[in-house]
Write a structure and sequence with these properties.
By secondary structure, this protein is of the alpha+beta class. The chain has 2 helices and 5 strands; from the N terminus they run ααβββββ. The chain has a 5-stranded antiparallel sheet, with no helix packed on it. A hairpin with a 5-residue loop joins β2 and β3 (86-93). The longest helix has 45 residues, at 2-46. The chain starts with a helix and ends with a strand. The model is unreliable at 18-25 and 27-40 (pLDDT under 50).
């Protein structure tokens, strides 16, 4: 009986230790994955042909880009502030290389031109 109790106690201890290790390893992997995604997302936006012109035209606040449409003909993005409010809408017509930037608050179109 003593051997069975000892065996059960050690089993419980080993199980508890190993499950903590698994949880911690999972958290470490998740944190690393999030960091990689953030970096990849930043490079993704800056590689768009319209990115530089957008940054030039809008105020230099911190915005989050959200893709609404991206197909062969056009790409529509929303730029939101830290509160999640949509501040700007951009429409890039790919075959014409035409960029339109619209301020969502009612000010309307603030840029409409062909970019290089």
């Amino acid at each position: 009986m003593y051997k069975v109790m000892t065996l059960l106690t050690f089993s419980a201890i080993l199980t508890a230790c190993s499950s903590d290790d698994i949880v911690n390893k999972g958290n470490e992997k998740q944190e690393q994955k999030e960091e990689v995604n953030v970096g990849k997302e930043t490079r993704e936006w800056s590689s768009l042909p319209e990115y530089e012109k957008i940054m030039e035209v809008i105020d230099r606040n911190d915005y989050t880009f959200q893709t609404m449409t991206d197909n062969q003909g056009k790409r529509i993005l929303f730029l939101t502030n830290n509160n999640g409010e949509k501040i700007y809408k951009t429409v890039f017509v790919k075959n014409e290389k035409r960029l339109k930037i619209i301020k969502v608050d009612g000010s309307g179109e603030i840029f409409n031109d062909i970019i290089n």
